Amino acid sequence: MQVFIVMGVSGVGKTTIGKLLAKKINVPFYDADDFHPSENLKKMKEGIPLQDSDRESWLQTLANKISEWQKKDGAVLACSALKEKYREQLQSVPKEEITWIFLHSEYETIFNRMSSREDHYFKPELLKSQFETLEMPNYGFHINVNASKEEVLDEIMWKLNRKEDAHMGLVGLGVMGKSLALNFASKGIDITVFNRHVEELEVDIAKKFAEENKLVYEFPWFDNLEKFVESLERPRNIILMVNAGPAVDMVIESLLPFLDKDDLIIDGGNSHYKETIRREGLLKEKGIFFMGAGISGGEEGALKGPSIMPGGPKKAYDRAGKILERIAAKDKDGNPCCTHVGPDGAGHFVKMLHNGIEYGEMQLIAETYHYLRFGTNASPEEIAALFEEWNKEMKSFLLEISVEILRKKENDGFLIDQILDAAKQKGTGGWSTNAALELGVPLDTITAAVLARNISGKKQERVNAMKAYNREYKSTTDLKEISADLFKAYKAGSVINHAIGFDLLLEASKAYDWNLNLSEIARIWTNGCIIRSHFMEDLIEIFKERPSENILMHPDIISLISNSESALMGIIAKALPAGYPLPVLSSAANYLLSFTSGQSSANMIQAQRDFFGAHTYERTDKPRGEFFHTQWLDN
């Protein structure tokens, strides 16, 4: 039977985790400290470090016990086993009969834990000597205990039960690639890394990354692509963390000569969904699986748990999905914020639209801040306090970080006042607008947010125009006077922005036959990603009830918008005449009025089109689908 030895310095949680593991796998638990002779216990209570001569008989007793346990029911043993020679002495049974579980963390973390422990004979002052004595094993399971005890146990069980193909090769060690590699390793997934070596440009990137982290994780590293591919378990799983565009094709072309049938490439960047469809088709002809997986959460998300949106062949997800789910953030019920979104380009389309909604939400916060900052002359600290109060209800990640941004100081001033008002973008917002145009779907708020960034880039031109038109910022209202209505307007704008984004997902699902599950997409956006919020939690249930309907038609949303519409229109009516642009809020209001208008202005458009181009029109007194043309200049 197997004997599991949970090892590490004192205070790392050997006893706690060992007992949980023993209970989980239904074997006896033993604590090595219980086998110390009385003279050793006395020394430790007095703060005297044990010498190797003190440990000799103790280790031999444990070795004998391990042999007994292995012949019976197996066991879990909590034992420091800091030196390799100690572990060799404990190895009284064949190597394959002992599983070593090395628990570790930073010195400061463990010291703080030990300082808070009561009625334990080991003094925290001895911890430094234990760290100095520790010789980390290059075998067994290495588990970082900077997590809850349940999460630590879950990682151990994953490693015990995982399949042989729980292995990933990663290409591209930029910021996201490095964070993702550390995430894989921390979750017990074998990860091999590659980064190209280019003299004076990218020098020893993979080697340096492995060396920087060698005290915690062992990263096999390569800067030779052929050797990298050959090192991976078959069938191979390779995730690309390179810049979207030609770089993805270049890497794929470089990989192909070394790949075999059924190998899998996962594009983890922000590639355009049509490029993903093209690449999957080309690789399918060669017997290679290809998945486009949107990954949201930035550097911190990649490291601690992002929201992941994989699209591609279901067979490929069945193989690699468990690995991706392993590193993903968890929702409120502990389920991974990762799901098989749909076939071919569905994953990258969903990530693109996530970013589109993100554009709208960011601009909505920005223009609200701008109006408050100059229209009410509120300080960044006052606005931060207001946003913090709003976020007790909204629970929006973007609103949360905006509070921190507004409170950040530099010298005697607020940093926000020193940041140039010219926004950059990577393209996904514009891609969303283009996709909406192709599918014939309105995308008012997201498009307005994209265009707001475009005009912000014309900084000097805007400054010149401000002088030419004699514009100047004036405080026209009071923060307290408008805060309640502004919050209602902000909430309504955010809901409408989400409705517009999800409506595009719905139409794309129909057009491309993706069968997107909007409730499931909302679920994986509840944690790890940039647009996570309390409202996203609500959308899970809304889409379960009405999976193929614009959310603005849900009774709860109708009630919310109806109660906020007056405030929405009122804020716009105050801000625009005073000279403060609200592009997303205004677009939200216009979309709402258009969406709820039984009679639009489009009859005039159709008449104009028929007048100059004989494009025909439908009539209100005839069935839909019948078209008519008029000779407009005939009497």
From TrEMBL:
SUPFAM superfamilies cross-referenced by the UniProt entry: 6-phosphogluconate dehydrogenase C-terminal domain-like, NAD(P)-binding Rossmann-fold domains, P-loop containing nucleoside triphosphate hydrolases
Keywords assigned: ATP-binding, Gluconate utilization, Kinase, NADP, Nucleotide-binding, Oxidoreductase, Pentose shunt, Transferase
Chemical reaction(s) catalysed: D-gluconate + ATP = 6-phospho-D-gluconate + ADP + H(+); 6-phospho-D-gluconate + NADP(+) = D-ribulose 5-phosphate + CO2 + NADPH
MF-aspect GO terms: phosphogluconate dehydrogenase (decarboxylating) activity
Keyword flag ATP-binding: yes
Chain ranges of the 6-phosphogluconate dehydrogenase C-terminal domain: 347-633
EC number(s) recorded for this UniProt protein: 1.1.1.44
InterPro entries reported in the protein's UniProt record: 6-PGluconate_DH-like_C_sf, 6PGD_dom2, 6PGDH_C, 6PGDH_Gnd/GntZ, 6PGDH_NADP-bd, NAD(P)-bd_dom_sf, P-loop_NTPase, Pgluconate_DH
Annotated signal sequence range: none
Protein name, as recorded: 6-phosphogluconate dehydrogenase, decarboxylating
Lineage: Bacteria, Pseudomonadati, Bacteroidota, Flavobacteriia, Flavobacteriales
